Amino acid sequence: MSHIIELQNVWKRYETGGEVVEALKDVDFHTDPGEFVSVMGPSGSGKSTMLNVLGLLDTPTEGTVLLDDRDVTDLSDREMTARRKEFIGFIFQSFHLIPTLSALENVEVPTLFGDDPAARERATTLLERVGLGDRLDHRPDQLSGGQKQRVAIARALINEPRILLADEPTGNLDQETGRSVLDLFDEIRREDDVAIVAVTHDPQLSDYTDRTVELVDGRIQ
Amino acid sequence: MNPLEELLRRVPALLMARRNLSRNRIRSGLAILGIIIGVLAIASLGMFGTTLRTGADQQLGDIGNEISISPNLQEGVEELTDRDVDEIRRAVSDGSVVPIRSDSVLVSRGDQQTVTTIYGMENPGAIYEASDGRVPDRLRQGALVGSGTAELLDIEPGNTIAVDGRTYRVSAVLAEQQGISLVNPNSAVVLPMEDVNGTGYSQVVVSAESGQAANESAVSIREELNEREERVTVFELQSITSGIDQFFGILNTFLIGIGSISLVVAGVSILNVMLMSTIERRQEIGVLRAVGVQRGDIIRMILAEAGLLGTAGGVVGALVALGAGVALNSFVLNDPMATFQPINFFYVVLAVGFGIGTSILSGLYPAWKAANERPVEALRN
Ligand SMILES: Nc1ncnc2c1ncn2[C@@H]1O[C@H](COP(=O)(O)OP(=O)(O)OP(=O)(O)O)[C@@H](O)[C@H]1O
Ligand SMILES: [Mg+2]
């Protein structure tokens, strides 16, 4: 099997005040290196929940998560954190850059707590690659929305992940900027063989993706 | 790259901590101010205690170095003999032994006269100093007059006085003894030993080099002379001075205790600041956790912040406290350098240590809370 990540019969239930919400119902999902998958569906259908389970940020109530053919469902927090660092890059809708750090330092953040002398060089190269070679020392409040998103992408790529997870990556961008971010995604999965899973409402994403997964009420259609 | 940046790059927790503190300078500044006040309170109250003790020691002089041996009247011993004095001399390893014979007689100069105590001493120079004239090492002739008697009879060195019918030339007027004294010469006259009636001695004073030597002498004198019967009573002024020392020890502990309260308050303010800033940065910390930063690193980062606040406050507080100590000592003791003695450095180090310790302790709960937040929860908008 060559799936980089796989969900098998995954259920996620939330209990809130005696009421049980089933956010994911028997979800089977997998993606391969270099594949670009979009996840679509109405609000509250469980898209973010699925992304969190894929990203080892959350554990399923039932079912199995396989990362690079290894069962990672019941790992400790420490091991999960280490796997996230090794395998997964996150891109958040609202960027979540750290305001006190420069663009370059923000890209370095995932490497900061660990011995990685080559990180600064990689971060510089990545920022040049996303077109921000002249913005290395700018703080987030000195960057535009599209530029921030590109810093976030560079940060997601710093540890050379195998999977890129993006929740509404173009949600806060105008159409043209969104397109340039999507071009970048396309380049990344082609050149670096990275699997990309993006949650979106944006119809122009389908021009780029290999396939689209439709979630409705916690079930894949 | 300058050394500071180099250090910050090596220790990422410090880098992040420093950046976070510079985010809200006023808040960080106020937290630091709290620590400064706490450290200042402990260090300067400690030093204040030292100053009080030094001042008191100066007032007491070295009376702690003297002991007095007198006959035990309850056992029927009326006076000390030459044999007793010899035994005392043998028991005292270093220090001078001054046997004293005393009496009460009529002293007159011209037509003024008064009844005073007279002391017979061979070597009064061991315990007295002159305010006018000279105290000889061995007193063979002439008289030394206490300051009170001198004033009463209007006596100066070189005058002639009559003591119990015999005439003496006055060789010195003794310096007035202030405070506590074993043999107070102020209203007395000191004569050569053989000029005072009697054969024994009413008292023997031993003047040692230090309080400790005095104490050792007292112990061996008791062993030697009181072996068979309680022949003598030995009185040590050291028992008074050590009591005073003990009092100042308690006073100091009390003052430092008061100072510690202000440090506890500062700790609470740091707890508050750290808690607020971690709650504000909830999402950021969630992102750090999501991109692979371990719990332990988050804890280290927040403790580093608290530690930096404590260190900054501690260093500034220590400097201000030393400044206050210099001011206090030049004012009270007329000696600013009295600030720089080991005990004061101990107080400063203690205060700074308390300051940093309190800060880190106050950072523990916010750090633990931030590190244990699940990143999914923190990142939910
Ligand atoms: N921590 C939680 N506690 C309780 N219920 C939750 C929790 N997280 C998610 N849910 C519920 O799970 C369901 C799926 O939520 P999810 O955030 O995955 O939706 P979504 O598809 O991402 O929606 P949107 O497009 O609005 O972002 C929702 O009904 C939501 O209320
Ligand atoms: Mg969502």
Automatic annotation (TrEMBL), chain A:
Which positions, given as ranges, span the membrane? Answer: none
Q: Say which species the protein is native to.
A: Haloferax larsenii
Q: Which Pfam families match?
A: ABC_tran (PF00005)
User: Record's CDD domains?
Assistant: ABC_MJ0796_LolCDE_FtsE
Q: Which UniProt keywords apply?
A: ATP-binding, Nucleotide-binding, Transport
Q: Which domain of life is it from?
A: Archaea
Show which residues constitute the signal peptide: none
Query: What terms describe the molecular function in GO for this protein?
Result: ATP binding
What is this protein's name? Answer: ABC transporter ATP-binding protein
The ABC transporter domain is annotated at 5-221
What InterPro entries is this protein classified in? AAA+_ATPase (IPR003593), ABC_transporter-like_ATP-bd (IPR003439), ABC_transporter-like_CS (IPR017871), ABC_transpr_LolD-like (IPR015854), MacB-like_ATP-bd (IPR017911), P-loop_NTPase (IPR027417)
